[in-house]
Amino acid sequence: MDSTALLLAATLSAGTVLAIASLGLLINEKAGIVNLGAEGMMLCAAIAGFATVIHTGNTWLGFAAGMAAGAFLAAIFGGLVIWLNTNQYATGLALTLFGTGFSAFAGIKYVQEKLPEQTQYPIPYLADIPFFGPALFRQHPMVYVAMALTGGLIWFLYRTRAGLVLRSVGESPESAHALGYPVRRIRLAAVMAGGALCGLAGAYVSLVYTPLWVEGMIAGKGWIALALTTFATWRPARVLLGAYLFGGVTMLQFHLQGLGVNVPSQLLSMLPYLATIVVLVLISRNPLWIRVNMPSSIGKPFYPGA
Question: Where is the chain membrane-spanning (predicted)?
């Protein structure tokens, strides 16, 4: 029972990384922008957050630095694809390549650094409940922030005028422009908000999930987050559930190794990426279902003068 509770707790922690990043990418895609630079933004945010905590000792400043780094890189990406109409896919890939290289260069002197001892955040009384306490109520606050972000994004997209405008920009930017909405500025705001969330996820990796800095430590989580938005058919609640599913698959490898299951570690390490491929293959068998849920203008440039 204790091992199951620990597995559930680890699943929530691992899923939080994917959930926060995927929610950010979902905001981008709801506005019609595809950002393949999530991996690079998360890496830069991871080193930005880690370096900030090393120099200040304040974890929350580290999260803020990660969000700022993600938003800054997203703003550059947005300027290129929204105003200069560069190809979204090529620009996103370039951002990932840049982020991978820059984070490795900037993080050289931080490889051996150690963070201050982490503060524990058990919820009084609830943390002492057998099984549920260790599994659910001794998590880092960011785990609960991811859940709150999901609820907040559902409310924003489907219960507010601003959310309706954002979705209209993703469905038909020409119509939104004809009604007088500043399509380009709305898209830039969405891209920067998404970048900030990707940055928050990257900082969470280096500050909480694996509290250290190692080159390439995001290890494909940005790509899984991209796949997760499609897997969830651009619905925030499904994003959260899918993130926990992938988080569970990720942590299952360590759980099985701890139980002494005689399976090669390389095969277990493949599980999260294999699950991603399987899910994408299953989804691609029904392209109509994807088209019905996908924002109509996703990945398409917008020319206001046309």
Answer: 6-26, 33-54, 60-84, 91-111, 141-158, 188-207, 213-232, 239-258, 270-290
Whole-prediction pTM: 0.92
8 Å CB contact between 121 and 227: no
Q: Do 216 and 100 touch, CB atoms closer than 8 A? A: yes
The CA-CA-CA angle for residues 249, 250, 251, to 5°, reads: 95
Contact yes or no for 70/198 (Cβ under 8 A): yes
What distance in Å separates the CA atoms of residue 265 and residue 243, rounded to the nearest whole number? 23
77 touches 195 (CB < 8 A): yes
For the chain, the 3-state helix, strand and coil shares in percent, each to the nearest 5, are 75, 0, 25
What is the residue whose two structure tokens read 């004809």?
Answer: 178
Compute the Cα dihedral for 2, 241, 270, 100 and give only its sign.
Answer: negative
Residues 215 and 103: beta-carbon distance below 8 Å = yes
Task: Note the pLDDT of residue 289.
Answer: 67
Q: Is pLDDT larger for residue 114 or for residue 119? A: 114
Looking at per-residue confidence, does 125 or 149 come out higher?
Answer: 149
Count helices and strands in the chain by DSSP H and E runs? 14, 0
Q: Diameter of the chain by CA atoms?
A: 64
Q: What percent of the chain has pLDDT over 90?
A: 68
Which residue ranges form the domains of the chain, and what is each CATH number?
2-115+123-293 (1.10.3470)
| Cα–Cα distance, 299 to 145 (Å, whole number) | 29
User: Given the structure tokens 């620990």, which residue do they identify?
Assistant: 6
Question: Tell me: the pLDDT tens digits for 231-242?
Answer: 888 999 999 999
Could you give the CA distance from residue 185 to residue 168 in angstroms, rounded to a whole number?
Answer: 14
Q: Where are the alpha helices (DSSP H) in 160-270?
A: 161-171, 173-178, 183-204, 221-231, 236-258, 265-269
Rounded CA separation 18/25 (Å)? 10
Q: In this structure, what are the phi and psi dihedrals at residue 131, rounded to the nearest 5 degrees?
A: 65, -60
